[in-house]
């Protein structure tokens, strides 16, 4: 290698190190709320739609981005660049957690909530941005530290541990707050369930959601009539989707039963003849079309 080639290689390495250092500095400033935010009025749903192709491109193969964007949201006052960075960090973490493929859901909503940092019990109205995944979840002690600078569960070289710190700092400086909802072994299924429920309602579907198959059985036996029951095959707390389908056939035989799984059909136990199957990953539109079939 000649002198010029060596010099160019050194300059490239130095530039890359400088860029990494600048990024770390910006993320630390975001965590400490020491950055200067350039706020502007923006339509958060429109921005998310604009960013979606780039966000999808950052996801590994097999991970599909879905959106459930609430209609009629008011405009927000935010720093566009920092908001995009925060969403990119959240989607990146969610995609990394979705091992083997699956869905990551980006959702917006309008919520009336208590301000956790206020001295009074007055409710405030928030535009919420949620990123939900079907990953392995976090233990409580890990979740408590998730927004600490440099804390990471990734292998060395895989992450700086500053992504969620940037989210925390930017959100706090913008007058909001961060909620981390997770269950080990289940990921953020609770949020995902509710967000999909909201999205289906936007398509005109009347939805009742449950946390597990036992709750679904209680609904089936409680007098409410259902046209369709949709469930994952792998469910928490002991009862599977296949077992749930047996209750559906017995208690509400008029209802269609649809089961979903990330496993190939050949890897699953035999399904009852009347049960329909939707393989993962699937798009929200596919689910809507299947649910609306006569």
From TrEMBL:
Stretches assigned to the Response regulatory domain: 182-294
Modified residue annotations for 4-aspartylphosphate: 232
Record keywords: Phosphoprotein
Record has Iron-sulfur as a keyword: no
Residue stretches making up the Histidine kinase domain: 1-198
An annotated Gene Ontology molecular function: transferase activity, transferring phosphorus-containing groups
Record-level GO BP terms: phosphorelay signal transduction system
Domain of life the protein comes from: Eukaryota
Name of the protein in question: Histidine kinase
Species of provenance: Knufia peltigerae
Source organism phylogeny: Eukaryota, Fungi, Dikarya, Ascomycota, Pezizomycotina
